[in-house]
Amino acid sequence: MIRKLGRALVRRCPNCGASGIFDGYATLGESCPACRLTFERHEGYWVGAVAVNTVVTLGVFVGVLVGAIVLTWPDPPWTAILITTVILNVLFPIAFYPFSKTLWMALELTFQPVNELPQPPETA
Ligand SMILES: [Zn+2]
Q1: How far away, in angstroms, is 91 Cα from ligand 1 center?
Q2: Which of 4, 8, 26, 60 would be 102's cystine partner, CB 3.0–4.6 Å?
Q3: pLDDT tens, position by position, 105-123
Q4: Tell me, what's the pLDDT at 119?
């Protein structure tokens, strides 16, 4: 699991570690060029990536908010904290989007490895 998450954090295929799985910053290809893993494993698959993005964004928000308050106590600059956290909550999920996809794939592959998936019917 740790290896898959490490690969995901550098935007590589969580299954084999190959690079070049993105066409640009955030556009994920359909499958891995090395191991042929199809990334969207079923309809609605990316809802998990949205959940990962939401949870990580919330964690970053809470961390920044609590950190800013603790570091500047007893006189926190509320306006600066508000502006910073609003900007952070808009920009972070956009920047984190490709990582949320690879992290979701890593988590999903850990709990449902490729060889345990139902295989599509063979075509002649
Ligand atoms: Zn791969």
Answers
A1: 29
A2: 8
A3: 999 999 998 876 555 566 6
A4: 55
- pLDDT for 123: 63
Q: Using a CB cutoff of 5 Å, list residues around ligand 1, an ion.
A: 13, 15-16, 18, 32, 34-35, 37
What are the structure tokens assigned to 108, written together?
């999903």
> Cα separations (Å) of 26 from 16, 64, 95, 98?
20, 25, 9, 5
Mapped onto helix, strand or coil, the DSSP state of residue 49 is helix
| pLDDT value of position 118 | 53
Q: 113 C-alpha to center of ligand 1: Å?
A: 13
Give the distance (Å) from ligand 1 centre to CA of residue 123. Answer: 23
Query: At a CB cut-off of 8 Å and minimum separation 6, what does 18 contact?
Result: 12, 32, 33, 34, 35
